[in-house]
Structures are given as structure tokens and as C-alpha cells.
């Protein structure tokens, strides 16, 4: 029933839902073993030789006094060496000209630290701090209304028929099942649901849990709303830079999903332990697209979510064999063009709070969408174009799927450029586009 137009929604200024995390000023406030901090400092000095206090403070995102304290301890262990600047007088002894590097013993310790854990970045936050922040940023803590959802879906044709279902679904915090034919806008709508909240969230760069550093922040999945530059030296005007203020995450995965992606894991070439997708999606939305197309059995995938959906927490197995509990506070959305009754059992369907069916557009909406997509490609529509197109739909019993105008307009433009004719989609051109877009029975394109 829905699909995007080509108009971009204006950017709304986001405000943090939770209070900013305060800057920790002591080791106790970090809630981390000091050995973890020292090992991370050694790795930074190995990666950035002869760094000064300011540079190390920016790299590790903690108070400079703690950096100096650890450097003093590492010097006492003969693991760090001091390199004096070339200045004279006061400048020669100022901290701005003092640089630190690793001794031979320090390099050995850094190698051992890298072998155990290759993470290199800001100091991780504790698991308890992470849980507290995730719960403070729960989407259910700030209910949306009809106006909010209408604004979020203002670029979606036919959204007025869906708002009465989608709004309560967002407020519930329960899982969604979006089903219907391919090309009806299920995934597009799901990715825009969180726009109704107009709030930003704090995402940690990494979390320390049971002896492991788990990297959470991912530039691929998280979009910053502020820079990391410290604009003020006053603590009350800062927040803990081990957190990054981001838009609510929207993570989408389809047929490529494997069970490994849902556990703490690392790549073959990088031994940094990465958070699973659902942990990266906390306080946002996690869309499992093309449900039923994954290589694993559907029952295996669905059973993975029974406990998180019921109790709002998830169990993760760590590399060292231990298991931790993390909050599962996100909107989980399944999207499929298969019959839900055939890919899942009634017990699982019952656990899905909202099951929303998507269908074709109305003819008036379909015409409007054609006008928008052709305009976006600087093309005109000949008078005979849409009548011919509507007749093709009737002949082949193809619904007014929202994906069709975008795809056929693109193919029509390819034909126009190749033939070097006027930028006008005629009846003849749209028929040629239809023939190559659909299979012989006239339905293949819309069933992708």
C-alpha cells in the first residue's frame, strides 16, 4: 500500500533522549580493571609512537590525569620511555613537548596485548553503564502520536492507510511482521519508522564484559549527529567521549544473514571482537528482510528471537567461553513476501505483536508516483504513456506495485539515451521497458 516518493524529507534536529553520560574523573568511575586500561595504552603507544599526553587523551577519550598516572606506572615498570622536546627554558619541560614511546620491554608487552585483543580505540564502557544507557533510551519511554508518525512517513504514498497500525506498533516495542508482495514498500517504511521519534541516542565505541572488549560503534550502521571535537574545557559542558551521539540505528540484513552475525565474532583478518547486529541495533530498529530466503532453516532463525522478544534481554557467548546478558531494547521487524502461515508456526506468530499486510497502490497514487519519478529523471510523460501502461497492468493482471514506476522510468531513460530521442516517455518506449522488465508471463519484474 505504500512507497516512497522521490522527495527527500527535510532533516529534523534531533535531541538526545537520555542525559549525556558524565565525564569520568577517576579510575573507579570507569568500572574497568586497570590492567585493561594499561594494555590499551600500550597498544596505542605501539600504533602511535612518541605520542604526547594530548594525543593519547584524544585517542583513549579519558581524563588526561588518568593517562599521566598510567604512564607513570608503566615508566616504573620500564615499559615506557620519555622523549624530551627540542625547546629550551619553560617550553622544554612543558607537557606539550614531552612525548612517550615504548621501550623494548614495552613493545613485547604491547605485542602480547595485541595477540590477546586487537581492539584499538577509546576506552570501553562497562557492561553495567551500557545497560543503564540503553534502558534510558528505550523507544517506549517517549510515546509517539499520529502527528509524529504522519510526519515521519510524509514522503510515503498511501501511508495514511497504515498510520493507525504503525503508530501503536512503535509504542508497543514489540516485534513486527510486514508481509505482502515484493515491491510494496515494506522495507522502505520500516526504515523510516524511527523518524517519528526525533531523538538521538548515545552509542558506545566499545563495551567491556567478562574479560572481553566488544566493539559496538560501526560507521556502517551508526550515523553521528555530533563531531568528536571537544568544544569546551569545562566538564559540565562535556559528555563522556567514549560514547558517540548518533541517530537511532537502523540495521537491515537480508538473505545473507547467518547465525554467526548474531553472536560476538570477528573477521578472518581482524581479531577485534565485534558486537552482533542486534546489539548494534539497540535503541533503534533491526530489520530482517526477505524472511525465508536465508540459508538457515526459518525455524532456527525464528527460535533465536523467542527469549529476546519475550523478556527484552539477550544471551551472548563470549570468546573466552563465558556468557553475558545484554539488553534487547529495539524494534525487531521481519519482512517477507512469502505466506507467513507457511514459513512460521502459530506459536511464533502469536509472539509477533503486529502483523501488517502491504499491498498495491491505488491507481491515483500510482499515477502520482509516475509523475514524481519521471520528473526526477528530467523526463516528460507523453499523453499516451500512462493509458498504455494501465492497459498493460490489466492485460497481465499486475498490481500497481510502487517499485514499478521507479524501475520502468529508469529503463525508459536508458532507452531514450541510447536512441538519442527527445526526453519523453512515450507509449512505445514504456512498452519496450515493460518487455525487458517483466518475464514472458508479464509478472516477473514485480515478484522480485
TrEMBL record:
Domain AAA+ ATPase, chain residue ranges per copy: 172-362
InterPro entries found in the cross-reference section: AAA+_ATPase, P-loop_NTPase
Tree of life domain: Bacteria
Stated name of the protein: ATPase AAA
Organism of derivation: Vibrio galatheae
Native organism taxonomy: Bacteria, Pseudomonadati, Pseudomonadota, Gammaproteobacteria, Vibrionales
Amino acid at each position: 500500500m505504500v512507497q516512497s516518493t522521490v522527495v527527500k524529507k527535510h532533516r529534523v534536529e534531533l535531541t538526545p533522549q537520555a542525559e549525556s553520560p558524565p565525564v569520568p574523573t577517576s579510575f573507579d568511575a570507569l568500572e574497568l580493571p586497570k590492567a585493561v586500561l594499561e594494555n590499551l595504552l600500550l597498544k596505542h603507544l605501539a600504533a602511535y609512537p612518541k605520542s604526547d599526553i594530548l594525543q593519547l587523551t584524544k585517542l583513549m577519550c579519558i581524563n588526561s590525569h588518568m593517562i599521566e598516572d598510567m604512564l607513570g606506572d608503566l615508566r616504573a615498570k620500564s615499559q615506557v620511555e620519555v622523549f624530551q622536546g627540542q625547546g629550551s627554558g619553560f617550553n622544554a619541560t612543558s607537557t606539550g613537548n614531552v612525548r612517550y614511546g615504548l621501550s623494548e620491554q614495552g613493545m613485547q608487552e604491547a605485542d602480547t596485548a595485541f595477540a590477546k585483543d586487537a581492539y584499538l580505540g577509546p576506552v570501553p564502557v562497562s557492561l553495567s553503564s551500557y545497560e543503564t544507557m540503553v534502558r534510558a533510551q528505550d523507544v517506549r519511554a517517549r510515546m509517539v502520536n499520529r502527528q509524529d508518525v504522519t510526519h515521519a512517513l510524509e514522503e510515503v504514498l498511501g501511508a495514511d492507510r497504515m498510520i493507525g497500525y504503525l503508530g501503536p506498533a512503535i509504542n508497543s516495542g514489540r516485534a513486527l511482521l510486514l508481509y505482502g508482495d515484493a515491491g510494496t514498500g515494506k522495507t522502505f517504511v520500516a526504515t523510516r519508522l524511527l523518524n517519528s521519534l526525533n531523538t538521538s541516542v548515545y552509542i558506545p565505541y566499545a563495551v567491556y564484559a567478562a574479560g572481553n572488549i566488544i566493539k559496538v560503534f560501526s560507521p556502517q550502521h551508526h550515523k553521528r549527529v555530533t563531531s568528536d571535537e571537544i568544544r569546551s574545557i569545562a566538564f559540565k559542558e562535556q559528555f563522556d567521549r567514549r560514547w558517540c551521539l548518533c541517530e537511532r540505528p537502523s540495521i537491515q540484513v537480508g538473505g545473507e544473514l547467518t547465525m554467526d552475525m548474531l553472536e560476538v565474532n570477528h573477521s578472518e583478518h581482524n581479531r577485534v571482537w565485534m558486537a552482533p547486529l542486534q546489539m548494534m541495533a539497540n535503541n533503534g530498529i533491526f530489520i530482517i528482510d526477505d524472511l525465508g530466503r536465508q540459508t538457515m532453516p526459518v525455524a532456527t532463525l525464528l527460535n533465536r528471537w523467542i527469549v529476546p522478544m519475550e523478556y527484552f534481554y539477550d544471551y551472548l557467548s563470549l570468546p573466552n567461553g563465558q556468557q553475558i546478558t545484554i539488553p534487547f531494547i529495539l524494534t525487531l521487524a521481519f519482512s517477507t513476501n512469502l505466506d507467513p502461515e507457511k514459513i512460521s508456526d502459530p506459536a511464533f506468530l502469536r509472539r509477533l505483536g503486529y502483523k501488517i499486510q502491504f499491498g498495491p497502490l491505488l491507481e491515483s497514487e500510482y499515477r502520482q508516483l509516475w509523475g514524481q519519478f519521471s520528473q526526477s529523471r528530467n523526463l516528460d510523460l507523453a499523453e499516451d504513456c500512462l493509458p498504455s501502461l494501465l492497459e498493460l497492468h490489466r492485460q497481465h493482471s499486475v498490481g500497481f506495485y510502487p517499485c514499478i514506476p521507479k524501475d520502468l522510468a529508469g529503463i525508459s531513460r536508458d532507452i531514450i539515451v541510447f536512441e538519442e530521442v527527445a526526453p519523453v516517455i512515450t507509449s512505445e518506449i514504456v512498452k519496450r521497458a515493460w518487455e525487458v522488465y517483466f518475464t514472458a508471463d508479464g509478472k516477473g519484474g514485480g515478484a522480485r
